[in-house]
Amino acid sequence: MREKVIFNTIKEAKENYMVDYTPVYDSNLAMLCLSFMSTSSNADMMRIMERELARWIEKYPVLTMVSACDDAGFYLCKNVKQF
After folding, report:
1. What pLDDT band is residue 6 in, cutting at 50, 70 and 90?
2. Model pTM?
3. Conformational region of residue 37, where left means phi above 0, alpha means psi within -120 to 50, and beta covers everything else
4. For 13-47, how does the pLDDT look when each residue is reduced to its tens digit (9 = 90+)?
5. Which residue has the higher pLDDT, 23 or 1?
6. Within 10 Å of residue 34's Cβ, how many Cβ atoms?
């Protein structure tokens, strides 16, 4: 009998942002969404996006789309494939 695999979103609270990781399920990529609690510069958001992506890719080596938004509604999105 095959092992049952459960795909759950993982949520983490960081110092000034929240992380939601959604594994690959119906699509071909996982989703990593960062929600910043305050207005952040593009450079800061990109730096944190890249750092979080590297951490999650190490844990789950699959194609992952990263997005982020701050409290002002500014939105960034980045598709990255790292193996």
Report:
1. low
2. 0.79
3. alpha
4. 999 999 999 988 777 888 999 999 988 788 888 89
5. 23
6. 23
**Residue holding tokens 């999650």?**
56
Q: Is the pLDDT of residue 78 over 80?
A: no
Which amino acid does the sequence have at 31?
M
| Residue found by looking up tokens 């990781």 in the block | 21
Token digits of residue 22:
């959604």
Amino acid present at 32: L
Q: 82 is written with which tokens?
A: 């790292």
Domain ranges of the chain: 10-80
DSSP string, the chain: -PPP-----EEEE-SSEEEEEE-SSSSSSEEEEEEESS---HHHHHHHHHHHHHHHHHHS-S-EEEEEE-TT--EEEEEE---
The token pair that represents 1 in the structure block? 């009998």
